Amino acid sequence: MRFETLSIHAGQGPDPAYGAVMPPIYQVSTFAFEGVGKPGEFDYSRSGNPTRKALESCLAALEGGTSGFVFGTGMAAVATALSLLRAGDHLVIHNDLYGGTYRLVTEVTAAQGIDVSFVDMRNLDVIRETIQDNTRLIWTETPTNPLMNLLDLAAIAAIAQEHAIPTLCDNTFLTPYYQNPLALGIDIVLHSTTKYINGHSDVIGGALVVKDAALAERIGFLQNTLGSCQAPFDCFLVLRGLKTLAVRMDAHNKNALAVARFLEARPEIRCVLHPGLESHPQHALAQRQMRGYGGTFSFCMAGGADAAFRLLERTKLFTLAESLGGVESLIEHPWSMTHVSMPESARRAAGIPEDMIRISVGIEHVDDLLDDLEQALSDS
């Protein structure tokens, strides 16, 4: 089945109890046993729940995996994936990534006795040089947040496979509609389902998807043991959002590219970081690795940080807020908002400038969005 069909039907047949077409919300904590020592398919909702199973099965199908796991937040998914590591292990991770992941890795993971190396994974030789005998995971994010750099997933996976090292890719920005890391050789796909997968800014969640049975067993054990799973009602909301993912992503993608081209032509803008633009240094990789560009990108103001603040204060349709991927358009300042959890030295080392703005382009009429940016730039 094609993507659009899978997103509506995978893991979501009519409910066996009454034939409900939509998976019901099984808002229960526990399930009756069939007899002493004879649990049914479900026994306790932390360990498994029918609503959660429907969402996990659908995400696995969309990513081309065999097993999916959903979590209460995107950071719960990140934390569960990092729990695959033990004291004495070595983690190689890209140096330009979501601020919350950076905070967890530096403040929690490293404190647990895990050696962490932040490197620029655009340089494949650097990855090879950084791998150690105790390297147990290579962590990627592409496009990166907020610099919109791209990582060559197939090449990174090939390097990792030479050393039998598992790899992970945060696929939040593109979703399985535009990019499938598992098909490129990556072992674990991570999502903040809060973003495009849910798409309506009304729930938070995360997900991990894998192909390997042994890896699935380990993640399932961690999900159950840590209690990091997603609640049934939240699973229902994400599952409902998934049904329209394809049509929403097409609208986000079209609008964002139009906004990027508009901004690139403005003298007030120093640069636009959008992989769909021919000016992006990795545009060729984007065309090879991705089927679309998503709805989020960044740009920098010619007038510096002061000009960025003026623009942020003057938009009307673009709401000043963190997060991304909802049907409404958002705008934010990575230096002081989403990435403020990174020390200033780390932000500078990653290349995040103070004049940068990140926007999540929604599915409003594109002319209204352009008009909003026009008036905000003219006033600035």
Descriptive notes:
This protein is α/β, with parallel strands linked by helices and 380 residues long. The chain folds into 2 domains: 11-242, Type I PLP-dependent aspartate aminotransferase-like (Major domain) (Aspartate Aminotransferase, domain 2), CATH 3.40.640.10; 245-379, Aspartate Aminotransferase, domain 1 (Alpha-Beta Complex), CATH 3.90.1150.10. The chain is built from 14 helices and 12 strands. The protein has helices spanning 3-9, 50-63, 74-82, 99-109, 124-130, 153-162, 175-178, 213-226, 232-242, 245-264, 283-289, 304-314, 344-350, 366-379, and strands at 67-71, 90-94, 115-119, 135-141, 167-170, 188-192, 206-210, 269-273, 296-301, 319-320, 330-332, 356-360. It has a 7-stranded mixed sheet, with helices on both faces. α1 packs antiparallel against α2, α2 packs parallel to α9 (232-242) and α3 (74-82) packs parallel to α4. The longest helix is centred in the last third of the chain and has 20 residues, at 245-264. The protein is globular and about 75 Å long. It starts with a helix and ends with a helix. The mean pLDDT is 96.
